[in-house]
Amino acid sequence: MLGILPGLVGVIQATEVIKLILGKGEPLIGRLLLVDALNMRFRELKLRKNPECPVCGENPTVTALIDYQHFCGIVPETPTTSEGRIVKNGIPQISVKDLKARRDAGEDVFLLDVREPYEYQIAQIGGTLIPQNDVPNRLAEIPRDREIVVQCRSGARSQRIAELLKQAGYRDVVNLAGGILAWSDEIDPSVQKY
Q1: In sequence order, what are the beta bridge partners of 111?
Q2: Where in the chain are the domains?
Q3: What is d(CA 149, CA 128) in angstroms, rounded to the nearest whole number?
């Protein structure tokens, strides 16, 4: 009996859809149809709209679907490069530890500091200072034949500038994840935090 019930309800639902598409008959809008398959009885209840309903009431507070993956605790797979670097909006992220190791090994990376001059005076790790708002006008100062590591205080501004450089045709651009703050925490505590 249970196997037949979904078929019965499915036929009723399909009938309602056809009535709505054709604009014919009286659809079950505002009514609830109760099906008692054992006794083969149908009952109809009239439903009134709740003016306090958070979805369809006078002042709805639920206006979009929830993120079910987030709600269920499913963490999306983070894209990575072949070197295992995390990628955000198409920009690989480099950790401060990786940057230090590469600089210690003598690798020729161009460190672009996109903070403001007053920030650079407080703390710096040896990058070339071009404030973020000046970068579009000073692209000629940024080499195209070297890897560009963009850094700022925390990694947010540098991410935006790295994306801008990528759009401007720079092929090898990465963002320093965590910026100066991460450098101070993980590499050199003498670099002042602000």
Answers
A1: 149
A2: 4-49, 87-186
A3: 10
**Global pTM exceeds 0.70:** no
Domain at 87-186: CATH code: 3.40.250.10
Catalytic residues: 152
Contact 192, 122 (CB under 8 A): yes
- In angstroms, the first-to-last Cα distance of the chain is 70
Q: Return all residues near 160 (Cβ < 8 A) that are at least 6 apart.
A: 132
Q: Per-residue pLDDT averaged across 139-148, rounded?
A: 96
Report the alpha-carbon distance of residue 33 to residue 120 in Å, rounded.
70
List, as one string, the DSSP characters of 38-91.
TTTEEEEEE----TT-TTTSSS-S--S---HHHHTT-PPPPPB-TT--BEETTE
Tens of pLDDT, residues 60-83: 898 888 887 777 877 666 666 666
Q: Phi then psi for 96, rounded to 5 degrees?
A: -65, -35
